[in-house]
């Protein structure tokens, strides 16, 4: 199993729609999880941290299911400015001290 | 706080030349991570350094690539005898204390083009 797996998309949704992305991870010992956003040819930027069962920040909700080892990101009331690639990030396998980035899910919000 | 500073933003090298990429972490951060992003691919971990120490270089190619983070000055990622396949965006991130509990802050990256 890959350390982090994401559906690459693209997800094409109209403005105002609700969209959800899933991410599965292999390291069952992981405690910290993150969602990053990356705009085309820019650096990744931290969107949300997920430590327990989930986290909510405005239109964005992240949920964690430890039993099934997946994380989800829900975006409500999509805006054009939400168009980007969303990266699921988890700690590397035990014994390594860095973060593993998923390949990302591309979202395109259309007018 | 100037954030993580990387330079140059763009670097063009001919095959066989050397490329040096620099990264200055955020103020107060002493841990630096280098990632590479090939075109249309995700970020791949390369190396994790503290001041004067390489902590984890498991993602570094075995040859031609090296990294350092001296006591004074920026972290340097060095690629010797570059080849076309080295063309990529190289991102540096920093964190305080080696904990990823709060995620990383990335620099704007260096885009290396090998011609």
Uncertain segments of chain B of ≥5 residues (pLDDT<50)?
none
Percentage beta strand of chain B: over 45%
Gyration radius of chain A (Cα, Å) is: 13 Å
Oligomeric form of this entry?
Answer: heterodimer
Biggest pleated-sheet summary of chain A: 6 strands, mixed
Total helical elements of chain B: 0
Question: Kindly state the mean pLDDT of chain A as a whole number?
Answer: 90
Write the layout of secondary structure elements.
The complex is a heterodimer of chains A (111) and B (115).
Chain A: E1 4-6, E2 11-14, E3 19-25, E4 33-38, E5 45-50, E6 54-57, E7 60-65, E8 70-75, E9 84-91, E10 99-101, E11 105-110
Parallel strand pairs in A: 2-11
Antiparallel strand pairs in A: 1-3, 3-8, 4-5, 4-9, 6-7, 7-8, 9-10, 9-11
Chain B: E1 5-7, E2 10-13, E3 19-24, E4 31-37, E5 43-50, E6 53-56, E7 65-68, E8 75-79, E9 88-95, E10 105-106, E11 110-114
Parallel strand pairs in B: 2-11
Antiparallel strand pairs in B: 1-3, 3-8, 4-5, 4-9, 5-6, 7-8, 9-10, 9-11
Provide key terms for this protein.
heterodimer; A: 111 residues; mainly beta; 6-stranded mixed β-sheet; 5-stranded antiparallel β-sheet; 0% helix; B: 115 residues; 7-stranded mixed β-sheet; 4-stranded antiparallel β-sheet
């Amino acid at each position: 199993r890959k350390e982090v797996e994401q559906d690459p998309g693209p997800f094409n949704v109209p403005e105002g729609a609700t969209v959800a992305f899933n991410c599965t991870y292999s390291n069952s010992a992981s405690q910290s999880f993150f969602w990053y956003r990356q705009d085309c040819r820019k650096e990744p930027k931290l969107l949300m941290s997920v430590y327990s069962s989930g986290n909510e920040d405005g239109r964005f909700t992240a949920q964690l299911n430890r039993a099934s080892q997946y994380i989800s990101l829900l975006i409500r009331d999509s805006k054009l400015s939400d168009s980007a690639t969303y990266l699921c990030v988890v700690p590397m396998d035990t014994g390594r001290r860095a973060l593993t980035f998923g390949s990302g899910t591309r979202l395109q919000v259309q007018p | 706080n100037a954030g993580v500073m990387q330079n140059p933003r763009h670097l063009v090298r001919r095959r066989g030349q050397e490329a040096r990429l620099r990264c200055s972490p955020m103020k107060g951060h002493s841990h630096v991570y280098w990632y590479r992003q090939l075109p249309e691919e995700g970020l791949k971990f390369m190396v994790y350094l503290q001041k004067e120490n390489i902590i984890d270089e498991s993602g570094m190619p075995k040859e031609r690539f090296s990294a350092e983070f001296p006591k004074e000055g920026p972290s340097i990622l060095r690629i010797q005898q570059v080849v076309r396949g080295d063309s990529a965006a190289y991102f540096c991130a920093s964190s305080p204390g080696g904990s990823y509990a709060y995620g990383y802050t990335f620099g704007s990256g260096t885009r290396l083009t090998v011609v």
